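User: Could you check the structure of this?
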Amino acid sequence: WDRIGGYDERSSCWIRVMQTAAGSGFGAWVLPRVGWEVVVAFVDGDPDRPIVTGCLYNGDQPLPYPLPEKKAMTLFKSNTYPGGGGYNELRLDDSKDAEEIWMHGQKDWNTVIENDLTRQVGHDETQHVGNNRTRTVGVDETLTVGANRTRLVGANETVTVTANRTRMVGANESVAISANQALSVGAARQTGIGSDDELQVAGDHSVGVAGSQSIQVGVNETYKVGKNADRKVGSSANEKVGKMRKRNVGLLEMVNVGIAQMVNVAAARIVTAGMVHMLNAGKLMKLNAGSKMELNCGGAKISLTSGGKITIQGATIDVIGSGDVNVKGAMIHLN
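Assistant: Sure, the predicted structure tokens are below.
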């Protein structure tokens, strides 16, 4: 109404703007920007008491979306101040079978819920975070997935549990590691397997036990080494076999004992050599039999009994001595 004014903040008195809600410290708040067309009324028709009752689009200030194409749309869209170039927007599209609620934030979005938050999605949900994401739960968290779940981490992942952790898999579980794996347990570890267990190592396998080790096999055990095997025991070693033990060596077997070796057999012991069997003693060799001892070679035989009887049998018997040959007895029979 001041046609010769300076078109600035001093052209008129300050004008109040009508809002949809206005309480003491709460309500709705939209302030007209520079260039907006507004509707001005006067309280009781007093020109010194103007009030803005609304805003209008015009040719210089067009609608955000074209009409009538977007006639079913309701929106609230702002403009970055100063300078423009950005916007915040809340858009409701009521077009049949294309209903949509759409929100856009030019920069940050902060939400504060003083109590509970419930969100229900009837179909799919997609969330994309261009940079970092942080989630903090003060007490408990429960995640329930009705079918499958896939998680892809492009770089590293760290999981820290300050107390206990329990993981339950109802069916199968597969873990594939392209490079190395390290497992560290600060105290004890127990592994229970209900059925079979198989370990395949493409390269070397090393097990280090600082204390004792106990292995119990309920039924059978098979131990196969493709090439060489080396077993070292720093002190004593005990092996107990309840029934039968069988050992096959394809080529050569050597047993080295630093001091003494003792073999105790409760019943019978049989040693069979296909070609040669040799016993060597550096100083003394003793063979003891409680009842009878026999030495057989074809038709030749030497027999010793516990009663002191020695019998030598053979087709031809030669007694050859490089020195004297002494034969002593209470009575010597010849033929």
